[in-house]
Specification:
It is a single chain. Helix content is about 70%, strand content about 0%. The protein is built from 22 helices and no strands. It starts with a helix and ends in a 5-residue tail after the last helix.
């Protein structure tokens, strides 16, 4: 073991000497040496040493010829016995370097892939769509990009595990996104209920594809469609009954003086989003449908004002934004500018001013006074 550590110390010392070399050739040699060390000895390096080596590589990446990085990516793309840190660096490089790693490397987990989908180029996203055995989470993130080329490429990947909810959502979008219609109906895992809905409005040629691909008849489709309509009606009736019970609960809590921001957060944490919406609307003294508009249509700054109006602490504002939108399968991302503007409302507007602002919005929307 002492011999192994001694050899490793010697290699690290050699790298330190190379680090003082300022020429392009010296930087390339340093890059290749660190990459080689990570490739061969990553199991022998401590987490601190791995982090240091990865930081140095990240600094060197754009000072080393692309051809050198490409060859490294091609060599490591199929390897599982190499440094994860090195693979992540390559996956985030220019697409010419990243492509083989994004398509093939088994060392990239879902978290890494989702970060790349969110922050890198469409070409990176397209490369990810070609991976084998894409998980439902990664597929959902690719669909969220809203790019037809990305979605078409994903749908063509028969190994991609696209869940039924995502497929159903794409079917609704396909009404106005003609480019994804054919690839979608060709998916053998398209739920029969979705097939039936799409059959009602797609072209004759796509109707034929549905019948052939899914071994389904027009009689089957009519029966499925009829059953689905009945199910929807039953769900609507149940929802109406549930909503009535939730409204009664909100009224009782309000009369007892127990309707509070803490109750709202507890409801949201338990997944009772409609109860949260009803309670929030009651505390803010605004209509429920307008409350939904603030939560889902008007953006983070408007939600911040509504939260401030009922004394919800700014520390849980982002949690509310994320959890309510997740419940509706909406994009939860916010850039830093949006977050800063929202927090500015908490810092520079008192609750009473927030209440007046909220009610003025409702009056503008309704074209009549609230009180």
């Amino acid at each position: 073991m002492a011999s192994i550590n001694g050899n490793l110390d010697g290699e690290v010392s050699g790298l330190i000497q190379l680090a003082h070399e300022k020429s392009a050739a010296g930087r390339t040699e340093l890059f290749q040496s660190i990459a080689d060390l990570l490739e061969r000895r990553h199991h022998d390096l401590s987490s601190k040493e791995l982090s240091l080596m990865s930081d140095i590589l990240g600094t060197l990446f754009h000072h080393v010829e692309m051809e050198v990085r490409k060859k490294l990516a091609e060599r490591l793309a199929n390897r599982t016995d190499t440094s994860v840190e090195l693979i992540i660096l390559l996956a985030n490089d220019e697409i010419e370097v990243a492509r083989p790693v994004l398509m093939l490397s088994k060392l990239l987990d879902d978290e890494n892939l989702i970060k790349i989908i969110r922050h890198k180029t469409i070409q990176h996203q397209l490369s990810i769509t070609a991976r084998k055995h894409l998980s439902a989470d990664v597929c959902r993130e690719l669909v969220t990009t809203g790019n037809d080329k990305v979605v078409v490429s994903l749908l063509a990947n028969r190994d991609a595990k696209i869940d039924n909810e995502t497929l159903a959502g794409l079917a609704e979008q396909a009404r106005i996104r003609e480019e994804i219609q054919a690839p979608l109906v060709k998916r053998e895992d398209l739920p029969r209920e979705v097939c039936a809905r799409m059959y009602q409005w797609v072209s004759d040629s796509l109707k034929e594809i549905i019948l052939q691909t899914h071994s389904i008849s027009e009689e089957d489709i009519n029966e499925i469609f009829s059953d689905a309509l009945n199910d929807i009606q039953d769900e609507d009736n149940q929802r109406a009954g549930s909503l009535s019970a939730e409204q009664n609960l909100i009224e009782k809590l309000e009369k007892a003086g127990k309707l509070s921001p803490s109750f709202l957060m507890k409801s949201l944490g338990q997944g009772q989003v409609s109860l949260f919406e009803l309670g929030f609307a009651r505390l803010a003294n605004i209509p429920v449908d307008f409350m939904a508009s603030i939560l889902y249509d008007r953006g983070a700054e408007s939600l911040a004002i509504a939260c401030h109006a009922i004394n919800i602490d700014r520390s849980v504002f982002l949690t509310i934004y994320r959890m309510t939108r997740e419940a509706r399968n909406m994009d939860t991302r916010l850039d830093q500018e949006d977050i800063d503007r929202a927090y500015d409302r908490f810092n520079n507007m008192d609750p009473r001013r927030a209440q007046l602002t909220l009610h003025s919005w409702v009056e503008d929307a309704r074209k009549s006074p609230l009180f």
